[in-house]
Amino acid sequence: MAEGERKRIVVVGLGLIGGSLALALKGFEGYEIVGVDVSQPTLRFAAEHGVGDRVTEDAAAVLPGADVVVLALHPRGILRFLEEHRARFKQGCLVTDVCGVKSAVMEGAGVLPEGVDFIGCHPMAGTEFSGIEHAFAEMFQGSHLILTPRESSTPEHVALMERLGAYIGCRDVYKTTPEEHDAMIAYTSQVMHIIAVSVCDDPMLFACRGFEGSSFRGCTRVAALDVGLWTELFSLNRPALLTVLDRLMENLGAYREALASGDSGKLAEKLAYSAARKREMDLPGPDLLQ
């Protein structure tokens, strides 16, 4: 690097998460933050609202000078980008992503040449909205940052990701395997979205408009999802998500059986069991992600 030349972080994809990241990273350790997107309206909005230090549509022009590249695209978009641009990444640079599935992305990163590091990353933050107009720098405050390094990932790059997480406001960093990440996310996030959209498929939905309680609104909050994104997330995490769905259907079946039996004692016993598990989960104690 020439004397006086700034280190560079390139954020590819300026949607809700990528745009928020480009905002949150401004000033980080002297890096220049460059946003990349193919949408002209997105680029105009980003330039007008100071998303990053500068923006461009030309990924090929900025990748060779990037010390860190963050891929904030849909999952299949990440795989295509890695394949298309694999020869443009600088030797010694770090490539990461913010995708909600890790096994498929980590496998796709196998196309990168030797000397280009890849660390899977998933900031546990977001909203039910999409698009750069909803991005905000405080998005990651208090969130967990999950990392799935390769066995060959350097300690320096892992430490860089930990400092980056602290800078954008994450409460902690949790390192795990892609498989454990995908199993956990299938249960804590993906199946919740399936529950939400399934509830909205009920014919009672519109008849009950205006009579929804907070529990209904909470349950269905994420149902107005980005169809393209969640189709990819569900599809690429199919084995883990099917396992969770099978368990959920067994649990729902057990509740239906208890209710259909007319045995209120059996129903109360099952409710007490479930409620106690939730209360135990919420008890103060060590955070598993610390």
TrEMBL record:
Work out whether the entry's keyword set contains DNA damage. no
Pathway connected to this protein: Amino-acid biosynthesis
- What UniProt keywords apply to this chain's record, in alphabetical order? Oxidoreductase
Which ranges carry the Prephenate/arogenate dehydrogenase domain?
Answer: 7-289
Which InterPro entries does this one have? 6-PGluconate_DH-like_C_sf, NAD(P)-bd_dom_sf, PDH_C, PDH_N, Preph/Arog_dehydrog, Prephen_DH
PROSITE patterns membership: PDH_ADH
Report the coiled-coil segments: none
Note the superkingdom of the native organism: Bacteria
Keyword flag Amino-acid biosynthesis: no
Query: In which family does this protein belong, per the annotation?
Result: Belongs to the prephenate/arogenate dehydrogenase family.
Official protein name in the record = Prephenate dehydrogenase
